[in-house]
Amino acid sequence: MAADARIQTLRRSLPPEGTAHELAQVFGLMSDPHRLRLLLTLLTGGEVPVGDLAAATGQSMSSTSHSLRLLRMQHIVDVRRSGRQAYYRLADTHVRLLLDVALTHSRHAPTTTPLEGGS
């Protein structure tokens, strides 16, 4: 019986299915190495023009623009336009915090994967 009560408590603590789906979309976008490099560039660079983002990450303008559009649609980045120039920045402090925590974790994570015998 105690296990059943614990399971019910755990189920009630879960966010709605829609929230889990939205999180999966955000993490899916961030799992692409090219998009992640754009985000990390914005993390350190603040507001950056598209051309500079492409040059800094070694990506084509087309690929950069496409990635930024996907990130913008999920409210991960914001854009400010000035004339013909588009300047991108991280959408808010939550995105910055998420990237900061991920970077910190990657620096402290074991160098082996579970498949290699690590924990």
Topology:
Elements: H1 2-13, H2 17-30, H3 33-45, E1 48-49, H4 50-57, H5 61-73, E2 77-82, E3 85-90, H6 93-108
Antiparallel strand pairs: 1-3, 2-3
Brief overview, please?
The protein has six helices and three strands; from the N terminus they run αααβααββα. With 119 residues, it is mainly alpha-helical.
Q: Would you write up a description of this structure?
A:
By secondary structure, the chain is mainly α. It has a domain at 28-104: Winged helix-like DNA-binding domain superfamily/Winged helix DNA-binding domain (Arc Repressor Mutant, subunit A, Orthogonal Bundle). It is built from 6 helices and 3 strands. It has helices spanning 2-13, 17-30, 33-45, 50-57, 61-73, 93-108, and strands at residues 48-49, 77-82, 85-90. A 3-stranded antiparallel sheet has the order 1-3-2. The two termini are 32 Å apart. The model has no long low-confidence stretch (mean pLDDT 91).
